């Protein structure tokens, strides 16, 4: 597996930006790994709220992952209370105006990858940072390109199980063969947590709180 350090936060910076407990409201091991690699000290508390299955028509597509990130962060805030800083995030893949979320099963993953094969598409991660009554919402957008996938490669990747739990049924970090390439935007955003954006938002949150 290829590993790449996120350039957003220097390793060892930790929680110097903002004081108190830091909580990641996500079950994603990839988001936790990015935070840990950047030197943050944090707890993981998984949101008890089930994500809505459909996007309401009143919420624009590009704002949907930020809305989901807020739902996760707010539900954890209500669960644990206190003055913790809570990070919520949600990532979607968008192709031709359609959202490709997490695949339900292998057949669903196959259909997603067949649609993405040979295309450029967007990856949007919504970010919510809650601290007491303070709420900062933002999003990052990256553009990726997937080369044309042969039936043999597709079968091999599906057999690996690496598609499970990932928007668009793929991870840019998942294979030694670079079949997914970053065209524009943050690499870490495609993994699931835009570290440059997170660093800026954490700094602004700390400034607003007077730290």
Question: Would you kindly provide a brief summary of this structure?
Answer:
By secondary structure, the protein is α/β, with parallel strands linked by helices. It contains 6 helices and 7 strands; from the N terminus they run βαβαββαββαβαα.
What is the topological layout?
Layout: E1 22-24, H1 29-37, E2 43-44, H2 64-80, E3 85-95, E4 98-100, H3 106-116, E5 120-131, E6 134-146, H4 151-160, E7 180-184, H5 187-191, H6 195-209
Parallel strand pairs: 1-2, 1-3
Antiparallel strand pairs: 3-4, 3-5, 5-6, 6-7
Q: What is the CATH topology assignment?
A: Maf protein
Measured as a percent range, the helix fraction is 25-40%
Tell me the series of helices and strands, N- to C-terminal.
Answer: EHEHEEHEEHEHH
Which blocks of ≥5 consecutive residues have pLDDT under 50?
1-13
What is the global morphology?
globular
Which CATH architecture would you pick?
Answer: Alpha-Beta Complex
- Radius of gyration (CA) equals 17 Å
Strand pairing plus helix content: what structural class? alpha/beta
Number of domains: 1
Report, as a whole number of angstroms, the end-to-end distance. 39 Å
Give the overall average pLDDT: 87
Structure annotation, total helices: 6
Largest beta-sheet characterization: 7 strands, mixed
* Strand elements, count: 7
In terms of DSSP E residues, the strand content is: 15-25%
The CATH C-level class name: Alpha Beta
